[in-house]
Recover the amino acids of this structure.
């Protein structure tokens, strides 16, 4: 018989805070059981039987189609039935879970049932932030570990719910959340690897870029804010979890553990932190749709309020000038990385709140009137391709498709980020800057490019930050559009 913690029977709650406390109690009990066993195993002790622990769950039963009137796009289930999801890291997601529980109670008036699920916690997802216990084991012990502890199971971590392909079996509960607990844990694990920072530091508004120039400017902005005792931001985080606190604030426990890595991670992340997590995270995703999909697959589990793409693009119209902006209102997807998850026939709509915020941000930062704005910013279709050398393809076939689609700009990431925002119900938007015009003989030359990048980047970044400010002050509830919700949508945001 496997070694498992003492069973905690399911409990029913009418207070969301009580339900969350019970989730935390169960999770802590299960995780402590795994960590204690793993520490003994690393020390050389062999358990007498396999060691197992399980995720907590939350469940609701509804018996009517009626629900409280709500202007939100989430917070309710579609009809009568049994709905549940497994939960993880209630320390990290405490505010998020509390809000989802509160909305379920408000919408349906049902009790929240909390208990221990039958879904095991993989041992790799039980390690604390600074634990690296597996690396201390020799090959034989690592092989034995696989027999004694549960390992990540890909069957429990797919995106069927988000993709709309999940089919619950007879007698099985319907999902409450887009992501199961193992799927969330998997992404938290990968975020550390790709970005070099802990998931705890990620903020609710995310900027993506495809050039380090933007990151350099963001770092300068971050340190400038930390020098202001009255800044709205409380900390700036860099890869390696290097923490800079705002002037006048004392260091906090754990700050000393941060250390600059010997080399930057694959997609380094930087976080300008507000006390309520409504600050800004910026990630350099590098070049290409594969990177764009990878990082958004993982950041999506953190349930951000919006993500925006700020980067460079090829201008496809002769009337465009280098340095002009492009506000995407439609996308041509030639990225091929999401074809399995999101068919090409699915339209990716523009979201009004994001579009308005970006346009207003350009006007605010450039101090241009509406007529002047049209001179430097074009709203139109952006095409994203996975072929960096599309210009070399014979017979100009890509050019023909771009013309037929009325595309005004081309890049390699924007459509992917928007499509994954659509898929994961994360509000999205794109503002690009024209850095070359390949169809009109204006190609990038090293000297010109460096000068141009430095000249435009500061303004472009300030526009992105201003857009986030507009979205934040306008109320995050308005961002989560019903356009992104399916017929039988999960209740969690």
């Amino acid at each position: 018989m496997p070694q498992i913690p003492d069973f905690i029977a399911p409990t029913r709650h009418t207070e969301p805070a009580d339900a969350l406390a019970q989730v935390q109690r169960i999770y802590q009990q299960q995780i402590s059981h795994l960590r204690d066993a793993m520490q003994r195993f690393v020390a050389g002790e062999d358990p007498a039987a396999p060691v197992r622990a399980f995720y907590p769950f939350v469940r609701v039963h509804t018996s009517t189609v009626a629900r409280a009137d709500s202007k939100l796009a989430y917070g309710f289930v579609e009809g009568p039935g049994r709905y549940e999801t497994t939960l993880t890291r209630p320390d990290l997601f405490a505010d998020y879970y509390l809000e989802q529980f509160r909305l379920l109670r408000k919408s349906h008036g049902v009790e929240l049932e909390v208990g221990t699920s039958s879904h095991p916690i993989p041992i790799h997802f039980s390690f604390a932030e600074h634990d690296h216990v597996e690396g201390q084991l020799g090959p034989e012990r690592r092989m034995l570990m696989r027999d004694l502890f549960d390992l990540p199971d890909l069957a429990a971590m797919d995106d069927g719910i988000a993709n709309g392909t999940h089919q619950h079996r007879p007698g099985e509960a319907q999902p409450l959340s887009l992501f199961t607990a193992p799927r969330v844990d998997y992404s938290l694990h990968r975020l550390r690897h790709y970005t070099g920072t802990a998931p705890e530091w990620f903020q609710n508004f995310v900027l993506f870029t495809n050039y380090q120039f933007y990151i350099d400017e963001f770092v300068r902005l971050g340190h400038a804010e930390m020098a202001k005792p009255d800044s709205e931001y409380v900390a700036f985080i860099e890869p390696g979890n290097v923490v800079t606190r705002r002037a006048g604030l004392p260091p906090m426990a754990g700050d000393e553990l941060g250390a600059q890595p010997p080399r930057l991670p694959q997609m380094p992340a930087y976080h300008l932190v507000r006390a309520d997590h409504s600050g800004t995270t910026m990630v350099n995703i590098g070049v290409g749709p594969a990177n764009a999909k990878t990082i958004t697959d993982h950041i999506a589990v953190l349930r951000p309020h919006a993500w925006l793409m700020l980067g460079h693009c090829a201008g496809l119209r002769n009337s465009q000038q280098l340095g002009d902006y492009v506000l995407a209102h439609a996308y041509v997807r030639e990225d091929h990385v999401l074809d399995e998850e999101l068919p090409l026939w699915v339209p990716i709509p523009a979201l009004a709140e994001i579009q308005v915020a970006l346009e207003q941000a350009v006007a605010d930062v450039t101090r241009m009137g509406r007529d002047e704005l049209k001179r430097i910013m074009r709203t139109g279709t952006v095409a994203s391709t996975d072929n960096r050398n599309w210009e070399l393809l014979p017979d100009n076939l890509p050019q023909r498709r771009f013309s037929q689609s009325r595309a005004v700009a081309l890049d390699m990431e924007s459509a992917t980020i928007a499509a994954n925002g659509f898929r994961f119900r994360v509000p999205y938007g794109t503002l690009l800057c024209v850095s070359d015009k390949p169809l009109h003989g204006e190609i990038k030359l090293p000297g010109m490019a460096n000068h141009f990048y430095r000249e435009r980047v500061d303004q472009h970044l300030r526009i992105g930050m201003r857009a986030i400010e507009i979205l934040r002050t306008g109320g995050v509830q308005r961002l989560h559009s019903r356009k992104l919700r399916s017929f039988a949508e999960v209740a969690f945001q």
Observations:
- Residues 11-190 form a domain with the amp nucleosidase, domain 1 fold (CATH 3.30.1730.10).
- The longest helix spans residues 446-474.
